[in-house]
Amino acid sequence: xxxxxxxxxxxxxxxxxxxxxxxxxxxxxxxxxxxxxxxxxxxxxxxxxxxxxxxxxxxxxxxxxxxxxxxxxxxxxxxxxxxxxxxxxxxxxxxxxxxxxxxxxxxxxxxxxxxxxxxxxxxxxxxxxxxxxxxxxxxxxxxxxxxxxxxxxxxxxxxxxxxxxxxxxxxxxxxxxxxxxxxxxxxxxxxxxxxxxxxxxxxxxxxxxxxxxxxxxxxxxxxxxxxxxxxxxxxxxxxxxxxxxxxxxxxxxxxxxxxxx
Length: 261
Ligand code: HXC
Known about the structure:
- The chain is α/β, with parallel strands linked by helices.
- It has a single domain, classed as Rossmann fold.
- The chain is built from eight helices and seven strands.
- Strands 3-2-1-4-5-6-7 form a seven-stranded parallel β-sheet, sandwiched between helices.
- Helix 2 links the parallel strand 2 and strand 3.
- It is globular.
- The structure holds hexanoyl-coenzyme A.
- Hexanoyl-coenzyme A binds next to helix 4 and helix 6.
């Protein structure tokens, strides 16, 4: 349960379509949205991730519609959007959280490995934004893209994710400029090292944690709740003039260039 910083009805009656919303950071954002009044439509490749989140949200009286889709497959994304509109009648918020990641040095990475992550993160983000456009135009809705800070400097073993997330940031800026005229806001969040996530477990072995935390200006790792709160702010009316921004939520970590890999 998110700490009650925001009014519990901040997203009341909004419909949020969330990719990768079954687990991790985006799963936290999805749950926080439901706790603040939003009706969820979550999509993931894995059916088991969807049913667990549906159960968790319904346990506190929230609404959670699920539809499985691979964001790399445009037809599947279009179908997921159509099913959501059929179910709720509209879409107000899109969150692009589906992502792929593994550690691999550039000289070992295959072309398909590089392309797979770019396809999930970058092309997947475009696919969902494009397929949701007409609905977002109707609702004067908004998009929130989950990015990273890996590409601000350079992160070894992460060339594929760095390139993919740089593309996501470009999508955020371009769409904010092109779709602002329809009242659609497009923003992003770049989480830093967030504890208890799959990404952190893979990037940062336990024995390096103590050393790394000393190099984070705020002297702590992030929590999923930190990203939830940033997402609630950006998608609420409190941010109604914020457009084209990728908000870094990392305790100041990237400014010191503390490589996690
Ligand atoms: C090298 C690898 C690899 C690895 C896969 N590949 N894993 N190469 N090291 N560990 C290569 C494969 O060999 C293959 O290339 C290509 O990638 C596609 O692999 P598949 O397994 O066929 O792909 P797929 O089943 O679509 O799986 C996608 C995946 C997978 C990205 C590879 O890891 C995945 O879906 N993971 C779940 C999502 C996830 O990890 N989420 C966490 C995101 S965390 P070849 O050439 O052999 O065909 C995140 C945070 C970032 O994004 C920021 C952190 C701070």
